[in-house]
Amino acid sequence: MNKNSSNTMALAPNTSNKRETVCIFGTGDFGRALGHKMIQSGYPVVYGSRSTQTSSLIPKDAEVLSHAEAAQKAAIIIIAIQRQHYNFLTPLAEVLHGKVLVDISNNLKINQYPDSNAEYLAQLVPGAKVVKAFNTVSAWALQSGTLDASRQVFVCGNDIEAKQMVMDIVRALGLTPLDQGSLLAAQEIENYPLQLFPMWKFPILLSLGLTAFFFFYCLIRDVIYPYVYENKDFSFFIAISIPNRICPVLALILLALVYLPGVLAAIIQLYRGTKYRRFPDWLDKWMLCRKQLGLVALAFASLHVLYTLVIPIRSFVRWRISSQTISQAQNNETEPLNTTNAWLSDSYLALGILGFFLFVLLGITSLPSVSNNVNWREFRFVQSKLGYLTLVLCTAHTLVYGGKWFLSPSSYRWYLPNAYMLSLIVPCIVLVVKFVLIFPCLDKPLTRIRQGWERNPQYSKQSNYIINKSAV
Predict the structure, then answer these.
(1) Separation between Cα atoms, residue 279 and residue 260, nearest integer Å
(2) What is the C-alpha separation between 157 and 121, in angstroms, rounded?
């Protein structure tokens, strides 16, 4: 008897784990996708709609009722409609009193309205507990299940318990909730999906500007100058030769620009004698986009490798080699091997290979999937120590390539140096200053400053006094 009763108990459903009903106002793409995902996660879903007729697009396990009827069945109501249609909620204020309203809307423009959609919703229904969430997840991601790119869900609201209820739903859907504080953060959360690569803007614009500059610079030196003075048409250089000059130049300059703000920050801290003062805004923004600068530099370095690999199959190169061979045969001359040039050539290639290998390693470790699996010391070792080694190797690669032509008058066409000479300016400045900063007389005080020591503590006391006084 006991055995049978225990089997019956085991087969009985566990009603204690039953999830509460969730109401969704709106049967659009996102409302349907979110409802389908919630049903898969075990939530009973009821839709509030103007039309109570069922449709094949609505998840089959969901119920469709009027807005008032649906609101009465759930404590959490997801508002899956646009801001301009919120007015229908005003007559429902009594029904919605005490309910948790989850605003998931986005705008078409950044700061489109003076206040956020969530704050506007809270004004329309003052008795409800408004929470902002789910606006950073797309309907397509919910439907397809490919949530890797949008797994984080920003959540904000004034009521702690309401936020916690929404965050529990977020976790149940397999997403990661991030508490952003009160409803004052809603406008920033609404602006987030509208930003188009915010951290990439400066690196891309800088890269485009440098690309245009060096393209016309190389065009003048390598195409226009020979045409004017030697009557030679090298316009085909535009396809391979000039890009293969621009790509390594930009890769080296951008790599140096990754480490230049760190050097400038160290100089500023040494000058001020404290780490408790903000850097200038331009330096702050520069330091925040160093990862993007490095990835753009890696892209240019990769293009340089590809352009270099196709050099032997170029028609111009094959013609030049055959012409030299025929000329030696006609003159019955054999050019002996120059071991110095052979050493320079092999060293130049070896430095380039090693530099590119470390360049790729830096790019791999900057990926979130990799950087999240290493501790801070390991990440700092790769990005700082190996990063500077990469810069040294790439700079040496360029120096060995054209060092012998620095003092050659023929290298200066129209008094313009070769592009690779210009590319050495920033890296050499960074490496020289960094070399000076590792001297013990500078490194020790810099380390102490970064550990909290101040040369003039009285300044920080005055700053704290001013801040406290202004707060009062």
Answers:
(1) 14
(2) 12
Q: Is the dihedral of CA 165, 169, 174, 176 positive or negative?
A: negative
Phi, psi of 53 (to 5 degrees): -75, 135
Output Rg (C-alpha) for the chain, integer angstroms.
32
Beta bridge mates, 132: 103, 156
Provide the pLDDT for residue 147: 52
The type of residue at 143 is: Q
Residues 360 and 298 sit within 8 Å (Cβ to Cβ): yes
For strands 152-157 and 129-132, give the pairing. Answer: antiparallel
Distance CA 124, CA 107 (A): 18
Q: Is the pLDDT of residue 15 over 50?
A: no
CA-CA-CA-CA torsion sign (341, 346, 347, 352):
positive
The secondary structure of residue 333, as a DSSP letter, is -
The token duo for 185 is: 């953060």
3-state class of 129 per DSSP?
Answer: strand
Do residues 218 and 243 touch, judged by C-beta distance below 8 A?
no
pLDDT for the residue 145: 65
- 206-210, 217-221, 458-462: least confident range: 458-462
C-alpha to C-alpha distance for 351 and 337, rounded to whole angstroms = 22
Q: CA 53, CA 55: separation in Å to the nearest integer?
A: 7
Question: What confidence tens digit (pLDDT) does each residue in 434-444 have?
Answer: 999 999 999 99
| Residue 298, pLDDT above cutoff 70 | yes
Contact 57, 4 (CB under 8 A): no
- Secondary structure class of 49 (helix, strand, coil): coil
Structure tokens at 227: 């045409």
pLDDT at 469 over 50: no
> What is the pLDDT at residue 415?
86
Task: Provide the pLDDT for residue 148.
Answer: 52
Three-state DSSP class for residue 183: helix
pLDDT tens-digit series, residues 122-173: 999 999 999 999 998 888 878 776 555 567 899 999 999 999 999 999 999 8
Whole-number Å distance between alpha carbons of 132 and 146: 23
Report the alpha-carbon distance of residue 274 to residue 227 in Å, rounded: 58
How far apart, in whole angstroms, are the C-alpha atoms of residue 76 and residue 162? 9
pLDDT for the residue numbered 150: 61
Place of tokens 């408004």: 130
| Arithmetic mean of pLDDT, 181-190 | 92
Residues 6+ apart with CB under 8 A from 106: 117, 135, 190, 193, 194
| Cα–Cα distance for residue pair 417/405, rounded to 1 Å | 10
Q: How far, in Å, CA of 26 to CA of 47, rounded?
A: 7
* Segment (H or E) for 258: helix 241-272
